[in-house]
Amino acid sequence: MLIEIIFERIKAAITTGIDLKGWLIVVGILLIYAAISIPIGLKTRCLTITPLPKGWAMKILSMIRVMIIPVIPEELLFRVILLPHPFNEKIPEMQWMLIAIVVLAVFIFYHPVLALTVFPPGYPTFLDPIFLAYAGLLGLACTVAYRVTGSFWGIAFIHWVIDWLWIYCLGGRTKLAKYDLL
Questions:
Q1: What residue numbers bound the domain in which 120 lies?
Q2: Domain count, the chain
């Protein structure tokens, strides 16, 4: 039964397309995230402007790497698998929101656990309260986009843009310097 639910949620999220209105919502969410996070990050020096990787091949490889890890597995787990599909699973709105709040808390808590276990380069960054606030805002942005679009593609795009820009343009590489694939 659980495996069937997981499979159905993944299938529904991947096969749900996004129309123009949905993409405008996704872009709007990204712009709101940027309007909140960039000024605060630059003012607190949590974010710093850094040069892009040299050469088009390195830029493209960096984009692919971020999509493969962390974006796809995190969005499949924290939005698609753990949240009821917004269109296919008819549950009361309040219940959906309560589940979303719990999943968002788990998403935030997951980052310090990751840094203290299988991803040591995340230490101490993934334990920093400002980073965790950014992770929470990212999780909220993706949750809202998923609720509105029901599509994996919009949330993957949001997560990918935010993570790639942080790692490769806003100082994330420096904070994760021990990570060989950067």
A1: 2-175
A2: 1
Q: Quote the distance between the C-alpha of residue 33 and its chain's center.
A: 12
- Residue 182 in domain: no
Residue 99 to residue 114: CA distance in whole angstroms: 22
φ, ψ for residue 132 (rounded to 5)? -65, -35
**Is pLDDT at 182 greater than 50 in this prediction?**
no
CA distance 3 to 178: 36
3-state per-residue secondary structure call for 138-181: HHHHHHHHHHHHCCHHHHHHHHHHHHHHHHHHCCHHHHCCCCCC
Q: How many angstroms separate the CA atoms of 133 and 151, rounded?
A: 24
> Taking 60 as the threshold, does the pLDDT of residue 73 lie above it?
yes
* 180 within some domain: no
Q: Report the run of H or E that residue 97 belongs to, with start and end.
A: helix 93-116
User: For the whole model, what pTM was predicted?
Assistant: 0.95
Q: What Cα–Cα distance (Å) separates residue 81 from each residue in 72, 75, 95, 99, 105?
A: 12, 8, 16, 12, 15
Both tokens of 168, joined, read: 């490769």
Structure tokens at 58: 């390195």
Q: Is residue 140 part of a domain?
A: yes
Our separate counts of H helices and E strands in the chain read 8, 0
pLDDT (tens digit per residue) in 106-150? 999 999 999 999 999 999 999 999 999 999 999 999 999 999 999
